[in-house]
Each structure stands twice: as C-alpha cells, then as structure tokens.
C-alpha cells in the first residue's frame, strides 16, 4: 500500500491534470472562445468560470440588461417614426416591415427572459459536456478541436460579411444614415446570435455523440479479432451515451418554446422577403436597391433557418444510431460466448433523442424541407392573388 503522503501527492497531481483541461483551459473553450465573446457582448452568455466550473454570473448579466434597454429604445424610436401621421404606411411593404420588426423584437426579448431564467441549466449542460471530454481524455480519446475552430471562424466571418452587406444595401435602398441603419440591425443581429448559440451547443453535443459512435464501432471490429477485455466495454459506452442523452433532453427542455418562435419568425421573414422580390420582378419594377437589400435579408434569414434544422438533425441522428451499433456489438458478444450475460439494448431504441418544438414537431432536415415546400406554395398563392 502507498503511504499517506504519497497518496496525497498522487491525488494532487491527478486533480492538477484534470484542472489543466477544464474551464477556460479546456480545448473546447479555447476553440470557441471568439464566438463566446461575441455572444457575451450581446448579453446572451451571463456565465463565468469558478473553480473550473461554469456558473451563473451576475456581472455579465449587466450586458443582458443593457441590450434589453437598447432594443427597447430602438423599437420605440421605430414605432414613433412609423406611427407619425406624415409617414406613408399605405404600402404593403411598410405594413410587412412593421409586422416583421415588432415580431422580431418580441422574439429577442423572449430570448433574454429565457436566457436569464435558465442560467443554471445551461451551466449544468456545459459542465456535463466537459465531464464527458475529461472521461474521454482519461480513456485515451482526447478530442482535437481543429474542426470546431474552423466552423466557429466560418460562422463569425459569414455573419460579419452578410450583415455588413445588408447594412450597406439598406442605407442605399432607404436613404438612411449609418447610425440609424445599424441601430435597426442590432435587434436582428441579436436574434441571430441567439440562434447561433443554441445551434452551437447542439453541434457540440452532436460531435460528442459522433465520437462515442466511432469508438463503439472500432471496438466492435476489434472484438471480432482480439479476444481480450477492451478498455471501453459495452456497459461504459451505454453509460456515456445515457449521460449525453440527458444533456440533449435538458437542452431541448430549455429551448422548446424558443424553437417555435425562431422557426415562425425566420419563416415569416423568408417568405416576405422573397415575395416582394418576385412581385417586383414579375411586374417589371426593377427596384435594384430594394431587390438587392431583400435578397441579402433572405440569405441571412434562410441560413439561420438551415443552421437551426441542420444542427438538430445532426445531433439527433448521431445519438439515435447508437442503438444499432450496440445491438451489433452485443449480438457478437453473445455469439462468441452464449453463456455470457448480455444486457438488452432495447432502451436505446425506445429512448431516442429528438429536438422538438414543445412536442408539436421535430426540428430536423425533413422539417426544413417541409418548411421550404410550404413557403414556396404560400409564396405562389400570394403572387396569384396579387
């Protein structure tokens, strides 16, 4: 047996190694920290690290209240300008813009309320993901976050470019000053940041499911030729999968109402922008500045809609294919030794992960295809009655 002093030294070394890759020092955080800074600046990340654990932060909550006041002031100035008797609100375009702007403001304020009220849940989700990464490192399967870093910088670069283009096109189309147009866009950028935050968490979760699937597949193939006890057995994989599934369910519960609001808001913006473009082109009214501006809006909104559905589809598909992998693994174990006690994997088939909008529908790529088809049909009907 080891001496007490030796045990304390080894325990200290073990804790030091664990803390070396947790919190702000974790590879995951380092790879996505630019995006976290952007989300925090927009008041949607009121969290901080304490003893390498993510906890709610009251200091960063000040950003949330700051943007709450800014968005409210912007929408108030917009309503004052729109409701001014001298403003021409007879056109369909202005009525549509009024509905879009007020609806988007409602969505953003709801996101703030959800963000404030679910700080503990998001902290729990992040800490569970880091616990999983630490377990993988202890087993010799440390993640390399190069792909994550590339995706983060692509998202940041794409948003900078698309919102910069929309800003310039909006100034040219509506003859607005830079400050006025930017203040109007901040509310929409804030909504995009919220969608990006949720989609990012879902993609991170999907990466962990994919890593676990690849490990399970590799051990199934090794078991056919190497008849030794592997480092990772089927029970450990089952346990890790259950932990990740619990994280996914918690994440879905936090954003179940937000998913409905986001999908409705983005769908309405998509069909309205495309409607005016097609209507003007069919009537021969080539308002180039307006058309270019609305096309920019369509790209920004439709990309968010795709990201939302793709991330949920990716995570759920990676999570739900584990049942087939485990069934194949345990079938081989039973075939190799019929006297071996093999636990059933039917619970993996029955307990599948789906991101649902409060139970109304699942958010995935088939839903994205359905939304696209419905919006195209609705757009065609609008053009027929114009």
UniProtKB/TrEMBL annotation:
Main location: membrane
Pfam families from the UniProt entry: 7tm_7 (PF08395)
Subcellular location: Cell membrane
GO process annotations (BP): chemosensory behavior; male courtship behavior; sensory perception of taste; signal transduction
Protein keywords: Cell membrane, Membrane, Receptor, Transducer, Transmembrane, Transmembrane helix
Record's bilayer topology term: Multi-pass membrane protein
TM annotation in the entry: 27-47, 59-80, 150-170, 182-205, 259-278, 290-308, 360-383
Gene Ontology, cellular component aspect: axon; dendrite; neuronal cell body; plasma membrane
Family per record: Belongs to the insect chemoreceptor superfamily. Gustatory receptor (GR) family.
Function: Gustatory receptor which mediates acceptance or avoidance behavior, depending on its substrates.
Protein name: Gustatory receptor
Species per Swiss-Prot/TrEMBL record: Cotesia congregata
């Amino acid at each position: 047996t080891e001496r007490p002093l030796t045990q304390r030294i080894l325990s200290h070394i073990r804790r030091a190694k664990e803390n070396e890759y947790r919190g702000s020092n974790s590879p995951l955080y380092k790879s996505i920290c630019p995006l976290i800074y952007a989300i925090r600046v927009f008041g949607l990340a009121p969290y901080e690290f304490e003893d390498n654990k993510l906890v709610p932060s009251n200091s960063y909550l000040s950003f949330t209240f700051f943007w709450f006041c800014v968005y409210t002031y912007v929408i108030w100035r917009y309503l004052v300008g729109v409701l001014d008797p001298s403003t021409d609100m007879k056109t369909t375009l202005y009525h549509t813009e009024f509905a879009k702007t007020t609806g988007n403001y409602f969505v953003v304020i709801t996101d703030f309320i959800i963000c404030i009220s679910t700080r503990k849940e998001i902290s729990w989700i992040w800490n569970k993901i880091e616990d999983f990464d630490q377990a993988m490192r202890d087993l010799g399967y440390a993640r390399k976050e190069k792909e994550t870093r590339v995706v983060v910088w692509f998202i940041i670069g794409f948003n900078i470019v698309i919102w910069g283009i929309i800003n310039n096109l909006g100034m040219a189309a509506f003859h607005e000053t830079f400050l006025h147009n930017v203040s109007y866009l901040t509310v929409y950028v804030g909504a995009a940041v919220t969608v990006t935050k949720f989609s990012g968490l879902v993609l991170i979760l999907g990466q962990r499911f994919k890593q676990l699937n690849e490990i399970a597949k590799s051990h199934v193939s090794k078991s056919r030729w190497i008849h030794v006890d592997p480092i990772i057995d089927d029970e450990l994989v089952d346990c890790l999968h259950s932990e990740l599934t619990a994280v996914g369910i918690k994440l879905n519960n936090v954003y179940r109402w937000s998913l409905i609001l986001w999908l409705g808001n983005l769908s309405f913006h998509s069909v309205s922008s495309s409607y005016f473009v097609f209507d003007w082109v069919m009537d021969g009214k080539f308002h180039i500045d307006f058309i270019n501006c609305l096309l920019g809006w369509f790209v920004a909104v439709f990309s968010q809609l795709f990201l939302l559905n793709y991330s949920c589809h990716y995570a759920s598909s990676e999570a739900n294919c584990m049942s087939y992998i485990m069934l194949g693994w345990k079938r081989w174990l039973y075939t190799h030794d019929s006297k071996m006690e093999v636990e059933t994997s039917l619970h993996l088939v029955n307990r599948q992960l789906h991101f649902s909008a409060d139970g109304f529908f699942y958010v995935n790529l088939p839903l994205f295809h359905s939304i696209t088809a419905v919006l195209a049909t609705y757009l065609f009907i609008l053009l027929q009655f114009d």
